[in-house]
Amino acid sequence: MEDTSKTVYAFSAETLDGRTVSLADFKGKVLLVVNTASQCGFTPQYAGLETLYRTYKERGLEVLGFPCNQFGAQEPGTAADIGAFCERNYGVNFPIFAKIDVNGEKAHPLYRFLKKQKPGLLGPLGGGAIKWNFTKFLVARNGRVVDRFASTTKPESLARQIEKLLEVK
């Protein structure tokens, strides 16, 4: 039996429409996991995320969006509001999950794991805290977290790293 304790495959999350999805469903894919928000200065990054998704989906990339309202209350809407916003304004086709917390006591277990694997600028002493919306985690086909990127990192700048991970089967 495969050990998934050090991979994202040990987790599941609820989609906007209320279905529970196991991340094991994405085995063998390269993942870009992003905490998102509809009313943030970085919200236009949805366009870049969708471009990456459309460009590399056939080669094995999945972009996973996790709306979060913890930063400046920039994701106040319902699941229906979030889905409609993403589709209407950015033509988002990649999976968007239900709103979650990424920091604090109620942080989603997936995000606790991601932050432990790649604690970011503040390091382990800072608890790996997510600093703002649109923090990105890149996950290899084997489910292991490869890198973490700040909100200011534009999605298109990740293309080269994504391509390298897609070459590994």
TrEMBL record:
SUPFAM superfamilies: Thioredoxin-like
The keyword Oxidoreductase appears for this protein: yes
A single GO molecular function term of this UniProt record: peroxidase activity
GO BP annotations listed: cellular response to oxidative stress
Gene3D superfamilies membership: Glutaredoxin
Keyword Lipoprotein attached: no
InterPro entries, A to Z: Glutathione_peroxidase, GPX_AS, GPX_CS, Thioredoxin-like_sf, Thioredoxin_domain
Residues forming the catalytic site: 40
Residue ranges annotated for the Thioredoxin domain, each copy included: 2-167
Coiled-coil intervals, chain numbering: none
One Pfam assignment: GSHPx
UniProt keyword terms in alphabetical order: Oxidoreductase, Peroxidase
Family: Belongs to the glutathione peroxidase family.
PANTHER family membership: GLUTATHIONE PEROXIDASE
Name this protein carries in UniProt: Glutathione peroxidase
Organism: Telmatobacter sp. DSM 110680
